[in-house]
Design brief:
By secondary structure, the protein is mainly α. It is built from five helices and three strands.
Length: 123
């Protein structure tokens, strides 16, 4: 599955998910985690037909409010009720990078580089 997603990363400007099950959710969150790791900056559109993604939206908002996910990770999720609204939101999307994650290059082209992160615990 990762090979297929890498091909999407190379060829797509955005991702759009329709109603789906566990496989759809897996791909949504894999793409989102790669964005958080600074592998890409492409939005993930969730077409919210009949409120299908309402609980996921609530979860993401709560996780963001409680600082379990950074704003930069939450912002790539675009929710829309119609295709027209989705297209408009995707066209208007501007990525605002996380300042820590922006310093790390996890892209496949730089795998030979040594990656450094400050993993110090600050209480």
């Amino acid at each position: 599955m990762q090979v297929r997603i890498w091909k999407k990363l190379d060829n797509y400007d955005a991702f759009i998910a329709l109603l789906g099950g566990i496989g759809t959710l897996e791909e949504i969150f894999q793409i989102a985690s790669w964005a958080q790791l600074n592998i890409h900056h492409k939005p993930i559109g969730l077409l919210n037909v009949d409120g299908f993604f309402n609980k996921l939206l609530s979860f993401l908002n709560q996780a963001g409010e409680e600082n379990f996910i950074p704003h930069s990770a939450r912002q790539i999720f675009i929710f829309a009720l119609t295709v027209e609204e989705m297209v408009d939101k995707l066209e208007d999307f501007v990525y605002k990078p996380d300042l820590v994650a922006a310093q790390i290059d996890w892209s496949k082209g730089s795998s030979s580089k040594k990656r450094k992160m400050d993993l110090s615990l600050h209480l």
